[in-house]
Design a protein that fits this description.
Number of domains of chain A: 2
Number of strands of chain A: 18
Number of helices of chain A: 4
Oligomer: homotrimer
Strand content of chain A: 35-45%
Largest interface: A-B, 11 and 16 residues
CATH class of the largest domain in chain A: Alpha Beta
Strand order of the largest sheet of chain A: 6-2-3-4-18-17-16-10-14
Order of helices and strands of chain A: EHEEEEEHEEEEHEEEEEHEEE
CATH architecture of the largest domain in chain A: Box
Helix content of chain A: 10-25%
Radius of gyration of chain A: 19 Å
Structural class of chain A: alpha+beta
Chain lengths: 247, 247, 247
């Protein structure tokens, strides 16, 4: 069983974090949290979302798994004002999710979870460097990189205690340098990796501009981006595989 | 003869109500009102617009009929600020309409009224049910229906004294239920009819979100939507033919 | 050498005035001003931009010429907030322009100035009439003309002391009449010329709506439009060749 009430803005933040990578996903309706783990079709980007029961106005679940079309669910959540409450209730027999918001009732046909790509294991990685910056700063670096290239390098300069977002185009280069005082926190370590800009742009779309984003990095290693929403009760971790540096 | 001065916002509201259904129309320039009746090319949706002489700053007319290209007239009205006054004057000899607003003069070639589709008779119907709701609520129901289907059912539940806007998609359903306290007024009666969503979406575009919309309904009967603008001096009635309910 | 600091809004205003006509241009980095003269590929519209050294926070230059891709430079300037300062520095050896704004560094590859169309000579013309109007009024006349035609006539009526912006379509006509009291200034003289609306629309895009635009006109002669920005330290002159009047 599953029956919950949640604010429209919290549900939208949760769904957006996943829908930037995949169209369909499995949602785990655990007793103490609502969770999604998904990987994009090319196995390059992964997301791990959890929304604690306390982030809901009310939450009852017993560990089931449902498959959903994220765009449909986002459209419905988009009908609500951001202060509105959304009521969710699973009908076990018909395998439909009943969604209600301010007089509006939507019956969403679920997808067989077995037809959806397997949930990935998010690997434990011992990444040597970590920076914590505002979503707005990450956004600025990504927009700048997008002017010249479709790749982006994330690098920590240990001596300078600085974090660089860099891109090299055919003729032009761009970089955003964040020094210790520009960041919320930095743990220096050997870190320099190249990533596909497309994936990072998609992830960036879901990251609130005022969120604190923790970026864990290594040398030609995947990057992990972590942020919270819903007053710390919603947690998103993205992992993105590196591209081989050509030079 | 025809010579009138009207506020840009009033003229725009009037034109919009017709242009959502047709591109060209006849305007009746009666002594006491400015009127349009039009039907879309498929004979599914009709509009009856009247704007009383008192809605104009000044109004002189003697019963002539002119044919106009609505998009042209809307473009000109769109050049004015909403507080601006638009001067209209018919040149009987050249069959052109002179339009002036704040130093701008536009000479609009008229269309031979005989080349425009005949004005429809809006049938008198004795519809048993009627609800009065805000334009914003109708808009919400139409947007919700549009997520799942291209048809929309409007239904009154007599026992519940409730008005339902419903849509059934291939897999998903949606309905908006308005109870007595959500509405401005309701007259219960047997009413359940299905309509093409496209037409209702077009009509909805012209209906101000803060207007009181009266919806008259029956069982597999046309629906009539009525609202007023220009402080009650502008009147719009839409009529939409029903679709056959397939189940 | 070239090294300068300028506010993002001033640089954007300067670049926009040129980019509406050409994609690439030569910039003259004179000791006392930053200047561009360019003509569109069809030799119909010309622009002469100068931005005085005093319009910059700091400015050092010794008379060099660089070739730039304007869209690239505009994209970078667009990354800055309007209050941000943009640092520009020419690397003579690599022929690259280093651009810095708030931690962001962009290295722009320059274009060989010899590969860019020759700078035009802006002819000295003795135009008999001149009007000074607000950018917003010019914009209004151009938008009105665009409803009916792809040509626009600019005309001064000497007896009325009025300025007319006129357009004749196949069936409809439009004109905006500005009388002495609607204008900032007028010098009457014989003036009536026809222009391609496309060019004037492009120029209009760059003209701030609150700028005072001086329009110098003659009989079937080019028009000159002049306005200032950056508190009078930036100067733009457009010149547009006339079309032959067909009637």
């Amino acid at each position: 069983m599953f029956k919950a009430i949640v604010s429209a803005s919290t549900l939208r933040n949760a769904l957006d974090s996943v829908s930037v990578l995949v169209d369909e996903c499995k949602i785990r309706l655990n007793e103490d949290e609502f969770g999604v783990r998904a990987v994009d079709p090319a196995n390059v980007g992964m997301v791990d979302l959890t929304l604690e029961a306390a982030a809901f106005e009310s939450y009852e679940a017993d560990g089931g798994v449902i498959g959903v079309n994220l765009n449909r669910l986002e459209d419905i959540a988009g009908m609500a004002g951001s202060g509105d409450l959304i009521h969710l209730e699973l009908d076990e027999e018909t395998r439909k999710l009943h969604i209600q918001v301010e007089g509006l009732s939507y019956t969403l046909a679920l997808i067989d979870p077995d037809s959806i790509r397997q949930e990935p294991d998010i690997p434990q990685l011992d990444l040597p460097a970590s920076v914590v910056i505002e979503g707005a700063q990450l956004n600025r670096g990504i927009k700048a990189a997008d002017m010249v290239s479709d790749h982006i390098a994330l690098r920590v300069d240990e001596a300078e205690e600085a974090f660089y977002i860099e891109a090299q185009g055919d003729t032009d280069d761009v970089d955003l340098k964040l020094e210790r005082e520009d960041m919320i926190d930095i743990t220096v370590g050997a870190a320099d990796s190249l990533f596909s800009l497309d994936y990072l742009k998609d992830m960036n779309k879901a990251i609130p501009k005022d969120a604190e984003v923790t970026i864990d990095l290594g040398e030609e290693f995947p990057v992990k981006l972590h942020y919270e929403f819903a007053e710390g009760l919603g947690h998103v971790t993205y992992m993105l595989a590196p591209r081989i540096q050509s030079d």
